[in-house]
TrEMBL record:
Database matches in SMART domains: Glyco_18
Similarity comment text for this entry: Belongs to the glycosyl hydrolase 18 family.
Keyword Metal-binding in record: no
Database matches in InterPro entries: Chitinase_II/V-like_cat, Chitinase_insertion_sf, GH, GH18_Domain-Containing, Glyco_hydro18_cat, Glyco_hydro_18_chit_AS
MF term (GO), any: chitin binding
Protein name: GH18 domain-containing protein
Annotated ranges, domain GH18: 1-385
GO CC, any one term: extracellular space
GO BP term, example: oligosaccharide catabolic process
Top-level taxon: Eukaryota
Length: 397
C-alpha cells in the first residue's frame, strides 16, 4: 500500500512538472506565433515599424486627423509632432512610427451605448485593444461629449471605462497612450459634468479642448473669438486647481475658425461692410439662448483663401482683449459675414501660455486644415508659419 502511494506521488510530481514544462512551451509557441503574426500582417517595409512606439517626450505635440483627410501627411512637421489621433491609415502608421510618433485610435465608436453596463464596457475595451493591436496602433483617444448630471451612472461608467482601458492597453501594448478629451473648463461646459478626478487619474493625458468656447452665450448675441486667450488661461487654471497634474494636461487649440452671417441689430439696421459688431441669429444650445451654432466652421486654408480672393470688406484685425483675429467679407449672396479664427500670432500667445504653465503639451484640431500641396509661395509660407509657431512650445527645430 505504501509503495502504491509513493508511486502515485511520483506520478503527480511528474505530471506537475510536465504541465509546467508544457506551460513554458506554450508561452514560447505563443510568443513565436505573435512574432509571425506581426511579420505576416505588418504593412510596413520593416516589421520593426509595427511595434509600439516607446519614445517619451517632455513636451507633447498632439494632433488630430479626422476621417478621410487629404493625403498630405508626409508634409507634417514630425520633428515636432509626437502623437496623431483618429487615423487607421496603415501607410500613415508606418510613416509616423518611422518618425517616432504615436498613432492612436478613435475611441468614439459605440462608446455611449456601453457606459452604464459593466459587461458591455468590458467587451468594448477588449474589442478596442484587439483592433489597436491588429492595426499596430499606440493607444486610444476618448472623446465623449454627451451632457450628464454630476454623479450620474453615465459619468461613473465613463471614468470606469477609461480606467479599465488604460489598464488593458498598458498591459497589452507596452508604451501605449490613453488620452481623454475634456472641455475648456471643468465646470458644466455644455452640460458635461463627468468624474474629472477619476478620468484624470486613469488617463495618461487630458486634451483640454480650448475652442468652441462660444458654445453657450448668455450675454450679447454677437460674434466673438473661438478661443479667447484670457478665458483659455482661466480654464487651464481651473483644471490645475482641481489637482490635475501639469504633466497630464495638453492644451488643445484650433487651426480653424467660425464664419458668421451677420444679422440686423435690434433697431433693424443691417450689418454694414465695415461694422465691427456682428449680431448673430439666436440659436440656443444646452440652455443658453445664443451659441456659435449660428455660424459654420472654416479651416485655416479656407479662411486664407477668402482673404486672398479680396472678398473681405475690412482688413484682418486683432482684437486686443480676446487676442484673436477677425475680418468681414461679402458672401456670394451679398450678405456680410464675419470670421473669427486663430493664426500664428494668436496661437503663439497660447503656446507661450502652455510653456509658462509648464504643461505637458499642446494640441491641434485639426492637422488637415492647412494646404500642404500648393506650389504658391504665399500659401506655402502661410502653412509653414502655422508649424513654426508651435516651436514656441516644443522648442524643436
Amino acid at each position: 500500500m505504501l509503495i502504491l502511494a509513493f508511486a502515485c506521488l511520483l506520478y503527480l510530481v511528474s505530471l506537475t512538472h510536465s504541465i509546467a514544462s508544457n506551460t513554458v512551451s506554450l508561452s514560447q509557441i505563443q510568443a513565436s506565433f505573435e512574432g509571425e503574426d506581426i511579420k505576416r500582417h505588418c504593412p510596413c517595409a520593416s516589421k520593426s515599424l509595427c511595434k509600439p512606439v516607446q519614445r517619451h517626450v517632455d513636451r507633447e505635440v498632439f494632433g488630430f486627423l479626422p476621417p478621410n483627410p487629404r493625403k498630405s501627411w508626409e508634409s507634417f512637421d514630425f520633428s515636432q509632432l509626437s502623437t496623431i489621433a483618429w487615423t487607421t491609415d496603415p501607410a500613415l502608421m508606418c510613416y509616423a512610427h518611422s518618425m517616432g510618433a504615436r498613432v492612436t485610435a478613435d475611441g468614439r465608436q459605440g462608446l455611449a451605448e456601453v457606459l452604464t453596463d459593466a459587461s458591455k464596457r468590458s467587451q468594448w475595451v477588449f474589442d478596442a485593444v484587439q483592433q489597436a493591436e491588429s492595426l499596430h496602433l499606440d493607444g486610444i483617444n476618448f472623446d465623449f461629449e454627451d451632457p450628464t448630471e454630476p454623479g450620474s451612472s453615465l459619468a461613473l461608467g465613463y471614468s470606469l471605462t477609461v480606467k479599465h482601458a488604460a489598464e488593458v492597453f498598458h498591459r497589452h501594448i507596452p508604451g501605449s497612450q490613453v488620452s481623454v478629451d475634456v472641455p475648456w473648463s471643468p465646470y458644466d461646459v455644455d452640460g458635461r459634468n463627468y468624474d474629472w478626478a477619476g478620468l484624470a487619474a486613469a488617463a495618461d493625458l487630458l486634451f483640454v479642448m480650448s475652442y468652441d468656447m462660444q458654445s453657450q452665450i448668455y450675454g450679447r448675441c454677437i460674434a466673438a473669438a473661438n478661443s479667447p486667450a484670457a478665458l483659455v488661461e482661466k480654464g487651464l487654471r481651473q483644471w490645475l486647481d482641481l489637482g490635475v497634474p501639469r504633466s497630464k494636461i495638453v492644451l488643445g487649440l484650433p487651426w480653424y475658425g467660425y464664419d458668421y452671417e451677420c444679422q440686423p441689430d435690434s433697431t433693424g439696421r443691417p450689418m454694414q461692410p465695415s461694422d465691427t459688431v456682428c449680431h448673430l441669429a439666436h440659436v440656443p444650445f444646452q440652455g443658453a439662448p445664443c451659441s456659435d451654432a449660428a455660424g459654420s466652421q472654416k479651416g485655416y486654408l479656407e479662411i486664407m483663401e477668402i482673404l486672398r480672393s479680396g472678398r473681405n470688406t475690412t482688413h484682418m484685425q486683432m482684437d486686443s482683449t480676446e487676442m484673436s483675429p477677425f475680418f468681414n467679407y461679402e458672401a456670394k449672396d451679398g450678405s456680410i459675414h464675419q470670421i473669427w479664427f486663430d493664426n500664428p500670432e494668436s496661437l503663439s500667445v497660447k503656446y507661450q501660455m502652455a510653456s509658462d504653465l509648464n504643461l505637458r503639451g499642446v494640441g491641434i484640431w485639426n492637422l488637415d486644415t492647412l494646404d500642404y500641396e500648393s506650389s504658391d509661395p504665399v500659401i506655402h509660407h502661410q502653412t509653414s508659419e502655422m508649424w513654426e509657431a508651435l516651436k514656441i512650445f516644443s522648442g524643436r527645430s
